[in-house]
Design a protein that fits this description.
single chain, alpha/beta, Rossmann fold, two-stranded antiparallel ribbon, about 45% helix, about 10% strand, disordered N terminus
């Protein structure tokens, strides 16, 4: 019989209280150890259940309804981006279908001036944060390393190297704290990236310096074709925070209520100066790793279908209908908003981009080095020389 959270955390709580200075609250009141099973407010069918721990309060239904609206738009955006890839408008697209509750629920809990550090699979989160979808897809179209302004949006460029963005998040969060601001950093990561050294270094740094950063692991079961059991022997990925003294929790990532509740508390915890939090969201990647992946080589259709029965969007809709906050008319309104969003994206993505050659040199350093100027001038000279060899009609093209 699995131990209760109260029993499992008793020794850790006592140790934390003894180690903490007088007047400092113990982490999450119950120690470092996460709940014995993922925190959930809804069952697989969208029915309300009692969470495994009483640490968290269910979010307000207004917040939940807004989360649902953005999840509907996010799913339609994801489907449109996948279609654009098949049409050759994107070089690659990593779908996040099935992970909408993780991405939308998390970013809804940070402020506009807080920092967000996404991975390559977090386009839905970026759109939910209010970033122009065309700018979100600029990287995946291959036009630039990032289509939006990270400084203006307080959102880092989507990160393809695994886990490197966590060090950036910890450093930025620490810097904000040193400057007397109460901003936090929210950093996403996949389950496979928890095997990278950068993950552990970031957690250790953040813990030692009490950086206000919330690390969110979207555990979707697969690191491309590598299953979770070949990634770790820990009871759950959330346990990886214990050794660093980082408060940690595991959550049903397909339950938007649970994501909103736990991430919300974690953000408040970090913002109040109590240090970082590590959250594992249990979810599933319904589509292939990218359009270049053949998922049938490493997982069964039965596995995929079983997770489709836990769909986060349908699950949340069922709950909202049960409490009288969603009906057919409002649902149709959200669906139409999502269609309009997708149509606008499709129209604008059908316009050929006109990237400037010099842009590849513009954002390498804060100011160009002598070597960079030399390389830029060399490229421009080569382009001009080629133009001189073209017929007159070609020079105007």
């Amino acid at each position: 019989m699995a131990p209760t959270r109260k029993a499992a955390n008793a020794r850790a709580s006592k140790a934390a209280e003894q180690a903490a200075p007088d007047g400092v609250e113990a982490p999450f009141q119950k120690g470092l150890i996460p709940a014995p099973t993922p925190v959930s407010f809804l069952d697989a069918h969208g029915e309300r259940v009692t969470p495994v721990t009483d640490d968290y309060v269910a979010p307000d239904d207004d917040d939940v309804l807004e989360c649902y609206r953005r999840m509907v738009i996010g799913r339609r955006f994801d489907a449109q981006a996948t279609a654009l890839t098949k049409q050759g408008r994107l070089a690659v697209y990593p779908s996040s279908r099935g992970q909408e509750a993780c991405q939308v629920g998390s970013v809804l809990r940070i402020r506009e001036d807080d920092w967000f550090f996404p991975t390559y699979r977090d386009s839905v989160a970026l759109v939910s944060r209010g970033i122009d979808p065309v700018e979100v897809l600029t990287l995946l179209r291959g036009d630039a390393h990032c289509g939006y302004d990270p400084a203006a949006t307080h959102t880092a460029a989507q990160c393809t190297p695994l886990a490197t963005q966590l060090l950036h998040a910890a450093g930025v969060a620490y810097g904000e704290r040193r400057q007397g601001r109460d901003r936090v950093a929210l950093a996403f990561i996949g389950d496979g990236a928890t095997s990278e050294g950068d993950f552990h270094e970031a957690l250790n740094f953040a813990a030692v310096f009490k950086a206000p950063v919330v690390f969110v692991v979207q555990n979707n079961g697969w690191a491309i074709s590598v299953p979770l059991e070949k990634q770790t022997a820990a009871p759950s990925l959330a346990y990886k925070g214990i050794g660093y003294g980082v408060v940690c929790e595991q959550v049903d990532g397909n339950d938007a209520l649970a994501v909103l509740a736990v991430v919300g508390k974690a953000v408040d915890w970090a913002r109040s100066g109590k240090g970082p939090v590590l959250i594992e969201l249990h979810t599933y990647r319904v589509e292939a790793h990218t359009n270049a992946d053949d998922q049938t080589r490493y997982r069964t259709s039965d596995e995929v279908e079983s997770w489709k029965q836990k769909d986060p969007v349908e699950r949340l809709a069922t709950y909202l209908r049960s409490v009288g906050r969603l009906d057919d008319d409002l649902d149709a309104q959200y669906a139409q908003e999502a269609e309009d969003f997708a149509a606008d994206l499709r129209d604008r993505m059908n316009e050929d981009a006109q990237p400037q050659v010099t842009s590849m040199f513009a954002h390498v350093y804060d100011g160009p080095t002598a070597q960079l100027v030399e390389q830029r001038d060399m490229v421009l000279e080569e382009i001009e020389a080629e133009r001189e060899t073209l017929p007159a009609s070609g020079k105007d093209a």
